[in-house]
Amino acid sequence: MLVQLARRTAILLASLVVASILVFWFMWVLPGDPAQVALGTGATEEAVAEMQARFGTDRPVPVQYLDWVTGLPQLDFGQSYVTGAAIGPLIIDRLLVSLWLIGAGMLVALVIAVPLGTLSAVHHRRPLGTALAGVSQVGIAIPNFLAGILLIGLVSVSWQLLPAGGWVPPDQDVVQFLRRLLLPALSLGVIEGAVLARYVRSTVLNVLREDFLRTARAKGLTPGRALVRHGLRNAAVPVVTVLGLQLAVLLVGAVVVERVFVVPGLGSLLLDGVANRDLLLVQGVVMVLVVAVLLLNYLVDVLYTVLDPRLRATA
Amino acid sequence: MSSFGPAPPPGTSDPTLPVGAMSSGARRSLPASLLVGGVLVGAIAVTALVSLLWTPHDPLLVEGSQRLQGPGAEYWFGTDRFGRDVVSRLMVGARTTLLVGVVAVGIAGLIGTPLGVLMGMSPRVLGETVMRFNDLLLAFPALLLAVMFGAVYGSSTLTAMIAIGIASIPVFARVARSGTLQVLASDYVLAARSAGRGPLAIAVRHVLPNISGLVIVQASVSFAIAVLAEAALSFLGFGTQPPTPSWGRMLQEAQELVAVRPFQAVAPGASIALAVLGFNLLGDGLRDRLDPRLDDRRGA
Amino acid sequence: MGAVSARPDPPPAVLDVAGLSVRTGDHALVEDVSFHLGAGERVGLIGESGSGKSLTALAIMGLLPDELSASGHIRLREVERDLLSASETERSTLRGDRLGMVFQEPMTALNPLMRVGAQVAEVLRIHGAVSGREAATDRARDLLAAVELPDPERIARRYPHQLSGGQRQRVMLAMALANGPDLLICDEPTTALDVTVQAQMLKLIDDGVAARDSALLFISHDLAVVATVCDRILVMYGGRIVEAGPTRALLTRPRHPYTEGLMAASDLEAVDAAGRLPTIAGSVPPDGRFPDGCVFRNRCPRGDDACQAWPGWTGEQHDGVACWYPSGSGREAGRG
Asked: Labelling B75: which of A98, A255, B235, C74 has CA 20 to 30 A away?
């Protein structure tokens, strides 16, 4: 098991390095000289040269890369070429906001998906099961930002129950925080719940057909208790995999939902960076998102081995 | 999901159960998704084609006097805040959606599939290594890649579809590789090999025909993802630029009006949802029909 | 017939199955099956795949798949209610306690994520046979030792995938016998095992039911296996019992042409004039679509117009045949 863990960790580290090279190359090398990009085509040569010197972009590319990448573990993402502000603290700030949103969204998703998926599996080929499967199929087709706009139209504008957007940090005012978190979390979570429900349904369906579930009933468990005691943990193994991957999807989904609800998260930061042609900022945010996705994949792998004893033995 | 691999598929493992009785339900439900998906996709395609010849109004015509009309005989779904006809814009938007989908899936399929076959047929170590890199690229979702493209090259429909296409390559490569490995392990390929067939002949004669089902299913699913991604990008302003009609863009305009017209988003939103639903259902239906692995299970 | 009449009257039935049918929609997969088992009695149920023997077992256990429905009567000793009209909760209290079952496939019948000791202990705790986790663990280890698993202490801490097929099947047996059931059902318990461990498994089943005076319903397609374990045999074909009788009498003087065919097919030394091993002509119809009337008539060497009607049962419930032209009756003369 330790060998496996070491192997997976090595793969993670290698992936991180390759990903950082890709991001650096794409955002830094490909567009041409960053100073030129930041100043626009109308800038004088002196101004560009001065900026190059100030930000060190007159040095060879590999040196610049090493400079950037070695800062990352200390959360040093450099300084914005547009505002001059340090990027690291900015990203951390915004990331925390996004994490609230994603966490709440995933919670909503799980609360919906586990009962919905299980129920539609148990009622497979009966009217309820077919109806629930249909509901989740339709849910998957709705983009989360559409759900957001409709929720705003209904809850904020028509009923005037909750604010249409904005953000209040939880340590400032918990009630206002929750009031503003609810709608974006629902837009993110309801749709994600529909996606997850399909996975839950198919894994529970698979588990329901397993021989060991019949054995569990032969031991004297009712179908419901057999499913809870023996089925759900077996179903959890593949669902956890999907969950980790879907968290990565949520991370990106949050970018759009943040825009809908004017939530100052990582997504908003990314989009503002693009709008201001602040490439180093964009580069930093992209890198954080990619690292998050890779890290999630890694954790899923590790968790998978913990959950399934069959995988511990094999190399 | 490999943990469930060794378990025999349900129903088929119990010899006392007649095969027909077990799978007839699945067979019956199969045409339903294919049918509904096909009809939805067909309807969108027809709408897009019709829009080339005729729309109720000029989708780009700004008419100050006709702003924000409600649904009626003249403007079926009303007008937007520039007085443009919503139905006409939706029809032309279908064109944008299909164009982005076709180009993105085309790029991904045409590059990803041969890449996957190549990886599957190349020596094991090389294939595994390239696959690791491939998996790494999966960490760049279409939306993120498109935003990066937008940041570097500027936003347009073209950069959006190229970005979505590139982001979808790894999925095709993965599907094609696993299909290839399966085909290569089969007896008839062994026979063809021992008969002295070269790798290219095997790829063309055996591998490609046998993985085409998988690839077609993936194309349908990726199409749905592309539609969603394009809508999200246009919504954010990174995709199709005004005044070209696009469903995502229309949603963004609807959101700006949400305080006045809370449900302006319904028409373009429903269009996006129906398109995605259509391609997803089509993919599901095709998977039941085409996926050779499922066939194996049924026949066992 | 002498051998039969020499037997004492069968003891009061532990299990009484009467007119059992299993259907999917309007299509019968098991039809009008009746038999009974006395305490400690060992009865074999044989037939080819698709004959309905596993479904009969699942119907007794109450484990039929949702899409199948059972009708008829199944009575268990000292249980007031007919099992088929009992609620799921009532039935689940009987399963694992008074009814035990060993399935065919040891590789998939155990929960892959649970240590086998815990799986054995669970059946004890569900039915309150022992109180406390520790007592259950101890008892589970004893049960594992009783099925002759080496180093039961260690085996108990293993996961199913770390055991061989034969070891897993012994764990299954330990679970099925844990609460000393009135009836043990074994569905092809040795079919998936290596030939070398089959005999050992049969002996363990034999010892296990003897120690608890449990009745045994032993399902197999293998005549030789059934003959070594069982006192009586029921032969099933096309969802019906076509012949029943004491093992020796049935094997020495089969009456139903299907039984004769099974015996001929299992006799490896018999060859016909052309030097081929005998087989039963044709095969079990796909989808369980057996003919009307006598279910065997499309494969039967003696079939004729009379066989378009179901022959009905001749003889005692535990010793009889369903055939228009049974061997030894004189009626089959000049046919086949």
From this structure: B235
As a whole number of angstroms, the distance between CA B92 and CA B55 comes to: 8
Q: Is B228 on the interface with A (CB under 8 A)?
A: yes
pLDDT band at C241; cut points 50, 70, 90: very high
Is there a domain that residue A210 lies in?
Answer: yes
Residue ranges per domain, chain B?
31-58+76-293
The answer to whether the CB atoms of B151 and A154 lie below 8 A apart is: no
pTM of the shown model? 0.79
Who has greater pLDDT, C123 or B296? C123
Q: How many domains does chain A have?
A: 2
Considering the domain boundaries, does residue A40 fall inside one?
yes
B106 phi/psi in degrees, rounded to 5: -60, -50
* A230–C111 C-beta distance less than 8 A: yes
CATH 1.10.3720.10, domain B31-58+76-293, yes or no: yes
User: Is residue A180 located within the same domain as residue A39?
Assistant: no
Q: Between chains, do A217 and C92 touch, taking CB under 8 Å as contact?
A: yes
Summarised one tens digit per residue, pLDDT across range B200-254 is 888 888 888 889 888 998 999 999 999 999 999 999 988 888 888 889 988 988 8
A257 touches chain B (CB under 8 A): no
Structural domain span for residue A60: 12-86
CB-based contacts of C115, cutoff 8 Å, min separation 6: C156, C157, C158, C159
CATH number attached to the domain at C37-65+87-98+182-336: 3.40.50.300
From B300's Cα to the closest Cα of chain A, the distance in A is: 16
Q: What is the average pLDDT score of chain B?
A: 80
Structural domain includes residue A194: yes
- Substitution target from B2, B3, B4, B16 for chain C, most C beta carbons within 10 A: B16
Cβ-nearest to C50 among B3, B13, B16:
B16
Burial C125-139 (b: 16+ CB within 10 A, else e): bbbebbeeeeebbeb
Q: Least CA distance to B11: which residue of chain C?
A: C65
B254 touches chain A (CB under 8 A): yes
